[in-house]
Design a protein that fits this description.
This protein has about 150 residues and is mainly alpha-helical. It has one domain. It is built from 9 helices and no strands. α7 packs across α8. The N and C termini lie far apart (about 30 Å). This is DUF2384 domain-containing protein. InterPro entries: Antitox_Xre, Xre-like_HTH, Xre/MbcA/ParS-like_toxin-bd.
Length: about 150
């Protein structure tokens, strides 16, 4: 699977853009081997610099600041950290596609919602099950089903 085919995987393309696109991941890259090897630390810098996540959010959801400092010296994330970062990027991309705007997605991800038992969607992304619930809710919203 290539992440560069927007007709087959639009969210995958957008997800790659959230973490740095071709500059960080390479052209025509399959994301799975990249995750297994460990993404470059530049992907973290990109998502922070773009404002998609704050350092505090990254600290809670993807990897602690102290660990990030250590990973910067090594140049890459671990496969587990890479997987968490991609999960968060995929859901940010899905929210942006669902709401049609990065600003609207940014607000929605950080606002508590009754459909998620009063939790903020972004705060659920620290677990796979939480991410699935957010993804399901975004799917319902995208299809016009009452959340």
């Amino acid at each position: 699977m290539s992440i560069t085919n927007p007709t087959l995987f639009p969210t995958a393309i957008h997800m790659a853009d959230v973490i740095g696109g071709v500059a960080a991941l390479g052209a025509n890259a399959d994301i799975i081997p990249l995750i297994r090897r460990g993404l470059p630390v530049s992907t973290v810098a990109f998502i922070l610099d773009s404002g998609k996540l704050t350092l505090a959010e990254l600290d809670r959801i993807v990897l602690p600041r102290k660990t990030l400092m250590h990973r910067r010296k090594l140049g890459s994330l671990t496969p587990e950290q890479s997987d968490r970062l991609v999960r968060v990027a995929r859901l940010i991309a899905a929210a942006e596609e669902t709401f049609g705007s990065a600003d609207k997605a940014h607000i929605w991800l950080r606002r508590p919602t009754t459909a998620l038992a009063g939790e903020k969607p972004l705060e659920l992304l620290d677990t796979d099950e939480g991410a699935r619930r957010v993804e399901t809710l975004l799917g319902r919203i995208g299809h016009g089903i009452a959340a």
